[in-house]
Amino acid sequence: MVRDGLLVIDKPAGPTSHDVVQRVRKALATRRAGHGGTLDPDATGVLLVALGQATRFFPFLSKEAKSYDGRIRLGFATDTYDASGRPASEECRDWPGPGRLAEAMRSFEGRILQTPPRFSAKKIGGRPGHERARAGEEFTLEPASVTVARFGLRAYDPPLVDFEVECSAGTYVRSLAHDLGRLVGCGAHLETLRRNAVGPYALADAVPLAVLEADAARGEADRHILPIERLLPAAPAVVVLPAAEARVGHGSVLKPDDLADSAIPWEAPLVKLFSPAGRLLALARPTPDRAGLHPFLVLA
To answer: Which of 37, 74, 143, 158 is 20–30 Å from 55 (CA)?
Structure first.
């Protein structure tokens, strides 16, 4: 049986994120697996796949910032905002100079309102936008507030723009490419994209999907699974005294004398509760009145 934990997959180009999960389920003979932070089929790189109890951590994992590098092609937009789509504008060879291009890219940095691509998983009336778009339906996607920490120019060989992006969850890099083309006046679309990291989980931690499948066939897949105790590394860890473990299971507020060192990190938005043996018992939050720690996600 596969234990609870997280797989950091280096997704290849081609399969959808759902396809990757299906292959993981088959390789590990488990049904309880899911992904966070969808990657488009043509994109590669870090895809988080949670197993067992770790699937309950997705509300927190999905909020992690992401970093990418890739290539934008100037000259025309496409209906999908990437190379898989059909041209949506006439070819233009009036490309900007490198200074103008870099300045335009920097203008997207900070807190911005961004409209998702029509061909995306963003739901409208309960249906993904890509389904409605392929059916030829008319619909409007509302812009969302996202943060782009960096949108940098790495190399420029017109019409090809090599770039790097650091951004908040919910940012569509395809939309950045499309909007950049509109701003510089020549149209653009995303040609390639590789995700380098999701929060603290980087390509250095990732296993190629084919390698995972091969190791699983030899019974060696466990070495790629990050145990649940190592997830959310930024959250402070607190050890619960044995006599108070039952209180954790009931979701009762823990007082300072229920803890091994009696110290509560009051300013932390999230706290991990451990047993003295090192088993993760629950996630908790400090109560607003500073009465103690309230377990809200209790692990079986």
So the answer is: 143
